[in-house]
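Example for tutorial group B:
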């Protein structure tokens, strides 16, 4: 990949994934894809952000972030193999996409957690860790828009992929994109630890603290209830 658009996942995609699937449940029948069989970037940048996330996030949220990485890679490699981005950029996005829900931040700002989290990621990646600004901005935009779900307009490739992976882990959405054996292996390596009730409580906490929060756009009751009643992931919680 020779340019920033490809390297950092800036290519525009339809926000409505059913357009990409052309009305089908998937592009290919999913196959098992294990954690051991999926490359995890070990660059200095990836390692620094991974350690930062491990320190800043509760274990439940860190494990969710890692599951989102592995589910996203399964979706990309099996369903959308033409999508272009570096694994490092996607990993950074996954690790930091919920940083705004950490206790020190969720009650420390009036901003919605995705937007504040995007700002934190931009500062960490570009200013502190000296990564290319095009990469830092891609991560920040994807974090800010990872709950910007809809049927009109466009979104970046990285933004759409983390939407798909988070919806899959949080609500069991688009269940036909990932093989059941992949879920079993990923949850074995990164246990859910009752993630459904944990994240539902986080949503309700933010909505109570910030009645204007962007999360309310997904349904003040429908979204946390949908997370808490995630039937696909219930056996692994």
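The residue assignment follows.
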């Amino acid at each position: 990949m020779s340019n920033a658009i490809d390297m950092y996942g800036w290519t525009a995609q339809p926000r409505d994934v059913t357009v990409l699937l052309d009305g089908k449940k998937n592009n290919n029948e999913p196959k098992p894809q294990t954690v051991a069989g999926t490359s995890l970037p070990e660059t200095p940048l990836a390692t620094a952000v991974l350690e930062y996330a491990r320190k800043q996030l509760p274990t439940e949220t860190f494990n969710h972030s890692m599951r989102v990485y592995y589910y996203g890679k399964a979706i990309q490699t099996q369903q959308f193999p033409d999508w272009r981005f570096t694994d490092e950029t996607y990993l950074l996005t996954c690790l930091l996409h919920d940083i705004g829900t950490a206790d020190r931040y969720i009650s420390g700002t009036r901003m919605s957690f995705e937007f504040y989290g995007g700002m934190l990621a931009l500062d960490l990646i570009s200013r502190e860790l000296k990564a290319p600004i095009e990469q830092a901005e891609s991560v920040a935009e994807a974090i800010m828009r990872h709950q910007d779900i809809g049927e009109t307009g466009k979104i970046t490739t990285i933004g759409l992929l983390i939407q798909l992976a988070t919806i899959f882990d949080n609500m069991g959405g688009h269940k036909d994109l990932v093989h059941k054996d992949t879920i079993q292996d990923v949850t074995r390596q990164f246990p859910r630890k009752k993630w459904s009730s944990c994240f539902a409580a986080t949503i309700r906490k933010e909505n109570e603290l910030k009645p204007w929060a962007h999360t309310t756009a997904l349904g003040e009751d429908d979204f946390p209830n949908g997370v808490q009643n995630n039937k696909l992931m219930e056996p692994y919680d």
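The mean pLDDT is 96. Compare this with the pattern of hydrophobic and polar residues in the output above.
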